[in-house]
Protein 1
Amino acid sequence: MEIEKQIIITYRWWNNEIETIDPDHLKALEESAMDRIIKMMGEGMTSGELNDNIRMHDSDPENGVPYRGWFEIDSKTL
């Protein structure tokens, strides 16, 4: 017997005060999202909030740029 399962992870980041996300922040946001999602998957969660503050450049605010997000996990047996 064999089982095959597909898991689709969707996540979104935003900051309502800025027009576009700094391209240099994207990798940090991806890492932050995946760390949080993996932790929450281990707790049995299939969706939840994401939050992070990124400060990578001197031009970023001293406390970082705040981002909020959301993730969802969809799985199906193939």
Protein 2
Amino acid sequence: MSLRTILTNLPEVQGPTQKKLSFNEKLKWTFIILVIFFVLGGISLFGLDPKSQFQFEQLEIILGAKFGSIITLGIGPLVTASIVLQLLVGAGIMKLDLTKTEDKAFFQGLQKAASIFFILFEGFIYVFMGGLNPPSVMNGASIVGTSIYAQLRLLLVAQLFIGGFLIMFMDEVISKWGFGSGISLFIAAGVSQELFVRLFSPLESPSNPGLMIGAIPAIFQSLASQDLTTVLLKLAAIAATLFVFAIAIFGQAMKVEIPLSFGRVRGQGIRWPLSFIYTSNIPVILVSAFLANVQLFARLFQTWGHPILGKFVGNTPVSGIVLWTSSPDVVSSLIKGSLTGATVAHALAYILVMVVGAVIFSLFWVQTSGMDAKSQAKNMISSGLQIPGFRRDERILETILDRYIMPLTVMGAIFVGIIAAVADLSGALTRGTGILLTVMIIYKLYEDIARQHMVDMNPMLKKFIKE
């Protein structure tokens, strides 16, 4: 049996038999998977030292994870597998024509196999490089180096594998039976939860004793104690969050419309919309996941005694690659009067990393996802469409589309890279990149629902969508 046969026949979630699912059916499965996601996030890893789960909290938002729970790995392995395969296909190392059904099926099978590998690999990395440790003492005696300690380590890896496996299939359920993709949904769910807590929670902050976690309660608390610096910091965080929401919605709404006509029906035509952010949130997800992996491995290497990617003091990177690929809080430094030239240089370097990364991944995504000019031209021709005034020729249509698609790919990636970086630098209520991703995910979800289910949705929801 060949490798191609094995990869194209891996276990998968069975898709629906009907051509189009109803709105209520998709809503049901999306809701079920969201509930399961939050439940899994509340199941703690058995045999984990409680001190370990706080090391990677800053990566939770980007990875759609809940550290210390069974879904500690989150979407990390899935996105990492996607990044590796995109680089291989984009660089021409792996020769695949994703417009062909057999090559596309092989690519999807390879992606699933790679995801399973990275679930297991990252599970071993987390545990055996000291990221997630069993308790060192049981019943008053040290168990480090004993068979019990080794067994607890293997048990942790097994739990991480089960959680990662569940996330992979939950993503498939959403992709086939729900709205959007599981990867996007888990990021949006995690960011929304974090944003709600950071905005309204009246509980005391563990990192800042005496101050409430929620920005709004903290503002009133600080006003009562005449702490104007904290008031300014919280107001700046809220303003930065609102700014990211507004600019992301503005960017998502911009489109270029190409007039097309039906070749066999005179006088009938449509406008084919191309979004300014042509590759949507995918480049930001990929570059953010890549930087999250850099931070993850930097911390693990430091724990292992070989800080080749840089060092952390607490949760703050202080040197090496990991320092320059993390975002300083420029607005907070400005308000506190501690802004320096080094901080500005660090901020500019971070913006450059985000922009260049977004452009690279955007270009790779266009080539590997069938969004390039050649694939789009083929789809249009097969639908009986052509550009008015031009012959119905796929090559001509491809040339004209290429004038729009490549500039939109690059400019859209630069736009989201800058906005994501500026959002992170502004000290928003949660990670600025996470807020940007959530806005783009929800906006795209809104567009998809409005386009596909305006007829069969609940009348109250229909009225809300129209407004």
